[in-house]
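Hello, quick one for you while I still have it in my head. My current little project is about how a certain protein chain folds up. You're getting the sequence in one-letter code plus the fold written as tokens. Would you mind checking whether the tokens look sensible for this chain? Here's the protein in full, and shout if anything looks odd to you:
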Amino acid sequence: MKKFFLFIAMCVLVLVHTSCTTTASLRILIPEDLITSDQEYMKKNYGTDYRWYESSAVLFNYLDNENCGGTIIELTNIFMIRSDKDSYDTNIIMFRHTIEGDEIQILPSHWVEEDVFIIPEKVNITFKEACLITKNSNPRLHTKHIVLRKQLGPNDADPQFIFGNNHGLLFVDASTGVLKYDSPAFERTGFVTWLGEWPY
């Protein structure tokens, strides 16, 4: 009987240790710190001639959930470099960060180097702050996805935190924190904003 209880106690200890180890191995993602570290990687490995094209994040809770505090569980940063000095073709350097780890991919691209890259000095608010700003929106969007991007459009607008699904979009100016329901890059032009298919 003593051996049986000793066996049960050992199993409990193993389960507790495994649970604690798994919990400890998961980390909290702070997008701004990860963006900075990825920029440092780019400078170290490719010099300063690179373009920060986009950062996209996945929230832990849906945006319209009252408990949504802007916690991020996945972040992807996309940078562009010229594939050749004599060409305008580019390569994509993509950093993907999750609560479980990181990965880097180098992808050939046929995109032409654009002038709509993000200027870091134009981003004055955080992903979390942008999420909290949308609490004033009506209606609140049912989405977990955020994209930080400077859109190519008729108007020269600041980079925007873009929240959306197949039913609508919200825009938070990354420089001023102003919330809008239409893209500032297309404002007062009559153009319809299109960003591809968003997940529900």
Strands lie at 51-59, 72-82, 89-98, 101-112, 145-149, 160-165, 168-173, 179-180. The helical segments are 2-25, 31-46, 127-133. The two ends are 55 Å apart (CA to CA). The longest helix spans residues 2-25.
